[in-house]
Structures are given as structure tokens and as C-alpha cells.
Write a structure and sequence with these properties.
This protein is of the alpha+beta class. Helices cover 17% and strands 38% of the residues. It is globular, with a radius of gyration of 33 Å.
């Protein structure tokens, strides 16, 4: 069955990574109680009204507000007088019929004696409820609850006069106080009594006596709307009415317009069924994001559509992001002039008096605080509405989605002069006749539109493309493969036949940009391209990474990715930059790889070749070797399946060793002086990787295997070359519920004439704990790492996730020609494992050996 409701339509806080936003701020969290909501300051039975404080819990110190924002805390903590609400007398008498509400609010559904339904929705929101169970009961949900102060507590009641004047269907919310009362019954009295609520009609089903719902005989939700639209091409959305409603959203700064916040009034007109929008839930109108951490969340951490209500909109496209799933299919026939006309008419309707009347619905105490500023901002946004309309039209026109229905249609695509393309869609009757007048018609221009995506859905439609081979690119999708398609010129026309898609474009972020302090270890993903993996790591470091992933149309797979990284190593004072580009299926099933990395000041240890070299110098810097390195490679990569990958590349490498005075390389006379000059190399490399574990972050069962080989030729001394073969095998075995064993064996063998920096190495955080990094160098190496791990779940206010311990034993050695040695180097120790919120693995280990003791901190497991 074709899915008709967009899978990514319901956007909410669950789309964010809570840890990325809140973890850095843990030291600044106040421990004041956030459990209490409405505070009653006088008797709830005084003259039918009550003085309440909507959110006393939001009263915080200036220190707290600096980090978490002032928001509307003053409005939330100011006493106001509101009317009492008794369900046995309101609206002719109401009866509770069940709880409702979203992931952020509590609600109670009520039914009147006339059969109509109403709803009580809590004024105070709990953003913490939007997070997964992993974060419940922790400081993160505590912070999220506090951030409900971004919302204006009485915003909803100010909207009604303005939206009525704008000519948009609407609810009529009222802010009321619900005292505890018998008619609520034991089931609801304790839970819902003595609280502040928003009371309004529930726009559903028959509303023929409600002119504010257009006197519609049937009101439906967005999910059913999609079903009806795609069932029959006689069912359509009134796009001008919807554009009017969306422009009104921009005036009041309501960014939360996902599909669930809309209802649709049904009307029968001229043998067609027309649906007009009824916006609901104005929780996000006038929202304010200030403070250090909210600023980071809305400007760096990906929640860019969370824009503060101000005198002007900053980014019309991003502000409207939650509304894209509806905007793209239901605003695709309007011209720029349509948008301008609607905007001008809306500006004329929203007079100064209308705006002032709306804001004066606020309690006098709140109007005195912020009423004047809200009026000024609304007037300013109204005055800029024509500009917003043009900008949003330009965005929606760049890529246009056109969708047929499950009925038969004729898509007539005409290429016109001057880069224009006209598309008309006609209904085909059961008698196989094409209707005279199109039910959709629009002319597109190259100057506005880059691509038109035409979906014919499941029936046997007719698609005809005529005219000269220029104009806007048109992508025709025939999911059933049954359409009759006639194309005079295939230029600028793309066909996707026999492919079924969801109706919404699969879309995730093209750009990932992150800065990691101390550790450059983002969430581990198997086979992820890493420019920093081209050479040895730089230890504790700051990493700046940008990942660009242009996405092919209607697929979750990326045809190419570009990863640009820059590292600065604190301990080694080393900087490097790298790039990996992957171009999917460039050569048959193979991806094309482009790789480059520059290390202006790479750092490695070198103690000389052999298994029994001496580390007797008093300073650790003596054995540091500084090199400048350039690597550039091009190759092919085959992703065999989700567990296997094969890479083959050719590369160029240039290495120059710095003859640092007082360091080992400067005093070791066995080192060829020519090594201190720039040396170019060329070679080929191949690697096979198999990875199958039960958990990428903390595996307790599974296998990881790698086999790599390379051949390197010295371009300066052309009679010198070498080959190297390396492999590792890691095995993870569970021992009951809490324990597991992890063991890894690895080694490498080099044959030929290689310089010292190309020798295989063991030591330190790479493969032999308890020793300095690159402690032993030789042509052949072997190492074995063994860990027993214990892990359990734990939960507290500050931490929820896993905590564990590990003990380890490592052993390894190198072989060098002409050296006779039977010595094996051993290291052992123990460590702590933390997996906060099950998002990232943090390990700290203490390792010791005959050469000393070392503490290692890592943002991953050792292996």
C-alpha cells in the first residue's frame, strides 16, 4: 500500500541531540524545584476569578539567566487574575471523556451535551517529555522543563482578533483556571484540578454551526487529508487560503507548524472537494531564545528554525522548516504574484487597531510588561510581509513537487521559449476521455526553478513532453511502471520508472559541522571515511570537521560525500588537515575515492630499529621525530554489504624529516643524511574490512577483521621499494549479562628497502599499552590485546547510562633482520568505562610495564 503521510512530517525536540546541547552546561544548572506549576495566590472562589502565578518555577537568578536565558520569565512569574472554570456549567455542561495532550503538554478532552468536543490543554509545557526514556529523570529533562519559559504564557488568546481579521479559520482559545471540583471525578480531579489551562473547541467532524471553521460539515486531520488528496484528483487544497494562513504564521512568529498542528475543513464546490486550513496550537507564537546555551542550540547544534520573535525574520526558509511537508505539496501552483497579492491583502487586514486589540487581550499585568513591544514587533513583521512572501516563494519554487493521484491523469509538459516550461494536469475519466480544463496549470521559468519533480503515483497515467530541448529540468516518476510516456526530446527530462517512494523527499542534513575538544572521536560508524586515518593520530587534540553529503533525489543513500577535517594535537603540538571525497558508483559498483592530507609538522617517536632498543634518556622529547608529510590518493571502494568493504588506491607521498637539534634522529649516525631532504614516493594500497558486532560503540559479541597491503616505490632513489602486509582480528565474546571478553591480534610484515619512518611500529595507545607510542620499530610486528569488561546500567539525576570496569593484558614485539631477540613486551592495567546517555563511550585506563606507567583518556574503546 502506498504510504501517503510524510514519514518526517512530525518535527519536534526529539530530532535534536540533547547531549550535544545540554552536556556542556551541567555546572550551571540550578537545583530549584520544577515540579509545581500554577500557584494560587488567593481563594479560587472569589467572585468567579482567581489570582494565579502561571509559572513561579521559572523565577531564576541572573547567573542562571545568563546561561539559560531570561526568556519570558517575568511574564510567567507575574500574578494575574483569570476566570474560574466549572465543567458542569461551561458550554452548557461538559463531561470528561479522556486524557489528551502532546509530548510537551497535558490535556483533558471534554464532550458537550450537543455532541461537540472541547479540550483543556495545560498552559505550562514540559519540554522534558519530548525526550526519550534515556533522558527522563536527569538534569537534561530538568533543563528542558525550564526552557518552557521561551513561550509566551498567554500568547494564544491574543491571536483570535488578528486571525479573524486576516480571514483565516481559527479556534477561540481562552485561558482559565480549573479549581478542583466534583464533576471532574476522582479519576481527573487530583491530576487536573487547581491548574491553569487553555480551553478551546476541538475542530473535528461536523462544525456547520461554527462560522470560524467555515461552517464545514466535516473537519479532518492532516493524515486523512493526504489520503483523500491522493485517492481522487477531485480532492484539492485551497492553496491561496493555505498561503494566507502560512503568511499569518510568519507575522506572529509561529515556527511550530508541523502537520499535526493543522485541521482541514471540507467543502463541496463545483463537483470538487476543497479543503481549507484550520491552524491550531499556537504554543510557539512570540517565542524568545536568549541566553548562552539556547543560542548555541539554535545557531550551532542544528535547531536553526528555532528563531526568536523579533522585529524582522532572519531566515524565512529555515524558520518555516517544520512546515515543509505540507508547504511543498500544497503551495505548488501559486505564482509570485499570487503570493504578493495575498501578502498585501493580509497587510491591509492586519491594521494597527487589529494588532493592538489582539495584544490588549492580555491580562493588564502582562500587557504592562511586554504588550507594547509585542505590538511594535507585530507591526514591523506585518510591514515586511511582502518581502517574506517573495523569499518563501523563491525557496519553494527552486525545487517543485507535483503529485498526481491514484486516479488516471494526463500530464502535459510543454517546453516554451525563453527557458519556460508549462505543466498542465488533466483528469482522465473512466470513459478514457481527457477533461477539457486542467485541474492544475503553472508555467515555470529557468530563472526561478531548477527542477520539477512530477510523481504520477500508481495508476496508468499519460505523460507527454513536447517542445524544444531546453527549459527547467523535469523528473518524471512512474512508480508502477505502467504510464504511457511520450517525450519528443529527452534533454532536461529524467525518468524514474518502477521505483516506489514515500511522498515526502527523504532529506537529512547535507552539512555536518562539529568541533570536538580533547578528543576527536565522533560517534563511531563502520567504514566512515576519516582523513585523519591516513597517517598516525595526534593524541589529545581539537578537531574541526565538516561533512558535506549531497543527496540524490528520493533516497536515503548519498551518492557522494566530502569530509574535510583539521586537527591540532595538544600533547605533540602538531597540526594536520585532510580531505576524503567519495563518489558513489562512479565506476560500476565501485565508489571513486579522492584522499589527501597535509601534516606540516607531524610527530612520531623513534627509538631506533629493533626489539630491544633502550629508552634511557631523561626527557621524553629526545625521541620525538618531526616530519612534514603530504599524501594524495585516488582509488576505488566497493561496499559489498553492510559488513564488508574493499578499497584499492594509488597514491603519492612526500616526506621530509626535520633534523631537530638534540633529538635522536640528529645524533644517530646510522640515519642517512639524505632523509633530511624531501623524499617523494608513489604506491598502491588495498584493504579489506569485515565488521559485524552487536554494538559499534561497545561491542560485546562479534568480529572485526582487517587485511591491508601496500607497495611503495621511492621516486628519488628509483632502485628502492618495499611491500607491506598488515592485518588485525578482534573477537568479542559475552560472558553472561554483565561480563565480556575482547581480544585482538595484529601484526605486519615488510619486505624490501624502507626508510625508518616506514617501518612497522608498536607501542602506546595504538596497540601496546604501558609503553610510549611507537616504542618499537621493525620490519615485522605482532601484538595481542586482551580485555575483560564489566558493564552495568546506572541512573541518577546527573548521569544515566552505563558504567563499567575493565582489566587488560597486552603483549607484543618486533623483528628486525640480524637481530637476535626472544623478548616479549608486556603491559597490563585497569580502567573505567562511561557511556553517558548511551551516546558516547568514554574510557580512562591506567597501564603499567617495566618502562613506566601511563594514564590514557579516550572517547572510544581501545578496540
Amino acid at each position: 500500500m502506498t504510504q501517503v503521510f510524510p514519514e518526517n512530517a512530525l518535527l519536534s525536540f526529539r530530532k535534536l541531540n540533547p547531549a550535544a546541547v545540554f552536556l556542556p552546561a551541567i555546572l550551571f544548572i540550578s537545583t530549584a524545584s520544577l515540579s509545581q506549576t500554577t500557584i494560587v495566590t488567593d481563594s479560587p472562589y472569589t467572585k468567579g476569578t482567581t489570582v494565579v502565578i502561571p509559572g513561579e518555577k521559572f523565577k531564576r537568578s541572573a547567573y542562571h539567566n545568563f546561561f539559560w536565558g531570561k526568556h519570558y520569565r517575568k511574564e510567567w512569574t507575574t500574578p494575574v487574575r483569570v476566570s474560574n472554570f466549572y465543567i458542569d456549567t461551561a458550554a452548557g455542561g461538559l463531561t470528561p471523556i479522556g486524557e489528551s495532550g502532546s509530548r510537551q503538554s497535558r490535556g483533558l478532552r471534554l464532550k458537550g451535551s450537543n455532541g461537540k468536543e472541547y479540550v483543556l490543554r495545560s498552559v505550562d509545557k514540559d519540554f522534558g517529555r519530548a525526550f526519550s526514556d534515556t533522558f527522563q529523570g536527569t538534569f537534561i529533562t530538568h533543563v528542558a522543563k525550564d526552557q518552557a519559559s521561551i513561550a509566551y504564557p498567554f500568547a494564544a488568546i491574543t491571536i483570535t482578533p488578528m486571525i479573524a481579521a486576516a480571514g483565516v479559520y481559527h479556534t477561540n482559545p481562552k485561558i482559565i483556571f480549573v479549581p478542583k471540583q466534583g464533576p471532574l471525578g476522582d479519576q481527573y480531579n487530583e491530576k487536573f484540578g487547581d491548574q491553569l489551562y487553555l480551553f478551546e473547541e476541538r475542530p473535528d467532524e461536523n462544525q456547520e454551526d461554527a462560522d470560524y471553521f467555515g461552517n464545514s460539515k466535516n473537519v479532518i486531520g492532516s493524515e486523512r487529508l493526504f489520503e483523500h488528496i491522493y485517492e481522487d484528483n477531485d480532492n484539492r487544497v485551497d492553496q491561496k487560503a493555505f498561503a494566507r494562513a502560512r503568511l499569518f504564521d510568519m507575522v506572529i512568529g509561529d515556527w511550530g507548524r508541523h502537520p499535526d498542528n493543522w485541521r482541514w475543513a471540507k467543502f463541496e464546490e463545483d463537483k470538487s472537494t476543497i479543503y481549507r486550513p484550520i491552524p491550531r496550537d499556537r504554543d510557539q507564537a512570540y517565542t524568545k531564545f536568549d541566553g548562552l546555551w539556547p543560542w548555541i542550540a539554535t545557531n550551532v547544534a542544528g535547531a536553526v528554525h528555532l528563531e526568536s520573535f523579533n522585529y524582522k525574520m532572519k531566515n524565512v526558509k529555515r524558520f518555516n522548516k517544520p512546515g515543509w511537508p505540507l508547504d511543498r505539496p500544497f503551495l505548488n501552483e501559486l505564482t509570485e504574484q499570487d503570493w504578493i497579492t495575498i501578502a498585501k491583502d493580509l497587510q491591509a487586514s492586519l491594521t494597527d487597531q487589529v494588532i493592538e486589540t489582539g495584544i490588549h487581550q492580555l491580562p493588564p499585568e502582562l500587557f504592562a510588561i511586554s504588550g507594547g513591544k509585542l505590538i511594535a514587533k507585530l507591526k514591523s513583521r506585518r510591514d515586511h510581509l511582502e518581502d517574506y512572501a517573495k523569499r518563501y516563494y523563491a525557496f519553494l519554487s527552486h525545487h517543485v513537487e507535483l503529485r498526481g493521484s491514484n486516479e488516471r491523469e494526463f500530464f502535459d509538459i510543454k517546453r516554451l521559449d525563453k527557458g519556460q516550461t508549462q505543466i498542465n494536469i488533466y483528469k482522465i475519466t473512466k470513459e478514457n476521455e481527457i477533461k477539457k480544463n486542467p485541474y492544475y496549470s503553472r508555467t515555470f521559468s529557468n530563472s526561478e526553478t531548477r527542477e520539477i519533480r512530477l510523481n504520477s503515483l500508481d495508476n496508468a497515467d499519460v505523460v507527454k513532453v513536447t517542445g524544444p530541448p531546453h527549459g527547467v529540468k523535469v523528473r518524471v516518476v512512474d512508480p508502477a511502471g505502467t504510464d504511457s510516456i511520450s517525450i519528443e526530446s529527452k534533454a532536461r527530462t529524467k525518468l524514474s520508472v518502477g521505483k516506489k517512494f514515500l511522498f515526502d523527499t527523504v532529506h537529512t542534513k547535507k552539512f555536518d559541522f562539529f568541533i570536538l575538544l580533547l578528543f576527536s572521536a565522533p560517534e563511531y560508524k563502520v567504514f566512515e571515511d576519516d582523513p585523519m586515518g591516513l597517517f598516525t593520530k595526534t593524541g589529545a587534540r581539537t578537531s574541526i570537521n565538516m561533512r558535506y553529503k549531497p543527496q540524490p533525489w528520493r533516497t536515503a543513500k548519498y551518492m557522494h560525500t566530502h569530509v574535510l577535517s583539521a586537527n591540532y594535537g595538544f600533547l605533540r603540538n602538531a597540526i594536520n588537515v585532510g580531505y576524503v571525497g567519495r563518489f558513489g558508483h562512479a565506476v560500476g559498483p565501485f565508489d571513486l575515492l579522492l584522499k589527501t592530507r597535509l601534516d606540516p609538522r607531524g610527530v612520531e617517536n623513534y627509538y631506533g630499529p629493533g626489539n630491544e632498543t633502550v629508552n634511557a634518556h631523561s626527557t621524553r622529547t629526545f625521541h620525538k621525530t618531526y616530519t612534514s608529510r603530504l599524501y594524495a590518493g585516488v582509488g576505488l571502494s566497493l561496499r559489498m554489504d553492510r559488513h564488508q568493504a574493499l578499497d584499492i588506491s594509488g597514491f603519492y607521498q612526500n616526506i621530509k624529516v626535520d633534523k631537530t637539534t638534540g633529538h635522536y634522529v640528529a645524533v644517530d649516525h646510522s640515519i642517512d643524511p639524505a632523509l633530511f631532504e624531501s623524499r617523494p614516493f608513489a604506491g598502491v594500497e588495498a584493504a579489506y574490512h569485515f565488521h559485524k558486532t552487536n554494538n559499534d560503540r561497545f561491542p560485546t559479541a562479534g568480529v572485526d577483521f582487517m587485511l591491508a597491503a601496500d607497495y611503495v616505490h621511492n621516486l628519488k632513489e628509483t632502485d628502492r621499494s618495499f611491500a607491506n602486509l598488515a592485518s588485525t582480528l578482534s573477537v568479542y565474546v559475552p560472558l553472561g549479562k554483565y561480563f565480556s571478553i575482547a581480544t585482538r591480534a595484529g601484526g605486519a610484515a615488510l619486505s624490501g628497502d624502507a626508510d625508518f619512518y616506514h617501518l612497522n611500529k608498536i607501542g602506546g595507545a595504538i596497540n601496546l599499552r604501558g609503553y610510549e607510542r611507537e616504542r618499537f620499530s621493525g620490519k615485522t610486528t605482532f601484538y595481542n590485546n586482551n580485555e575483560i569488561r564489566w558493564l552495568t546500567n546506572t541512573k541518577s539525576y546527573l548521569y544515566n547510562g552505563k558504567i563499567g570496569l575493565l582489566a587488560f593484558y597486552d603483549v607484543g614485539r618486533v623483528w628486525q633482520p640480524l637481530e637476535e631477540s626472544d623478548k616479549w613486551h608486556e603491559g597490563y592495567g585497569a580502567g573505567l568505562i562511561l557511556i553517558p546517555f548511551n551516546k558516547i563511550v568514554l574510557t580512562g585506563t591506567y597501564a603499567t610495564s617495566v618502562e613506566g606507567s601511563f594514564i590514557q583518556l579516550k572517547a572510544s574503546m581501545f578496540f
